[in-house]
Specification:
Elements (H helix, E strand, L loop, with lengths): L11 H23 L2 H17 L11 H21 L10 H5 L9 H15 L3 H12 L4 H8 L3 H21 L5
Helix pairs in contact: 1-2, 1-3, 2-3, 3-5, 6-8, 7-8
């Protein structure tokens, strides 16, 4: 989809380009999360409204435009879902035939993919030492002793490095606008 998108969302041209590049994906994401075409359209509109209102806070050095927009869309979908959950009427899914046929729901992996993209961007901003200890222990499942044997760094130093690496990762993700 995306070409070179102007990231100045405070102007109509930048906002229109961002919508053209990411609007359909955000609609599909919202529809999968909400199960209602009308609410999904509302979610897309609200996402771009919030993006326009907070355009001055967007920093392309922290996250891609797509990642930033999907983070906003995720919050919008959650807000709409919560609002709908407190409504006094029962919600009927858009696919009544599927429900009647007893079809299992489709697993939505969008949040997982989005989370991985955000974590990858955050890890890229860490020092090589911090990134290595997180990747090797948390993602590859290696113990501190195994890592110490191959890297030549004492296990105690690796534990200390992990403490500071996780702290730096949390700060980095907060700077990217990710809430815990």
């Amino acid at each position: 989809m995306g070409g070179a998108v102007t990231t100045d969302l405070s102007h109509d041209v930048g906002l229109r380009a961002a919508y053209d590049d990411h609007g359909p994906e955000i609609y599909r994401f919202a529809f999968r999360g909400l199960g209602d075409a009308g609410l999904a359209q509302d979610a897309v509109q609200e996402t771009f409204l919030r993006a326009w209102q907070s355009a001055r806070h967007y920093d392309p050095g922290l996250a891609s435009l797509r990642t930033w927009l999907f983070a906003i869309a995720r919050n919008v979908v959650i807000d709409l879902h919560r609002r709908r959950s407190t409504a006094s009427f029962a919600h009927v899914t858009a696919d009544e035939a599927g429900v009647a046929a007893g079809l299992p729901p489709v697993t939505d992996r969008t949040d997982t993919v989005l989370a991985r993209a955000v974590v990858t961007q955050a890890l890229d901003r860490l020092s090589p030492e911090h990134r290595q200890v997180i990747v090797e222990t948390h993602l590859r499942g290696r113990t501190y002793d195994e890592l110490a044997a191959t890297s030549g760094v004492p296990a105690g130093t690796l534990r200390s490095r992990m403490f500071y690496a996780l702290k730096a990762l949390r700060v980095t993700m907060e700077e990217m606008g990710v809430s815990w």
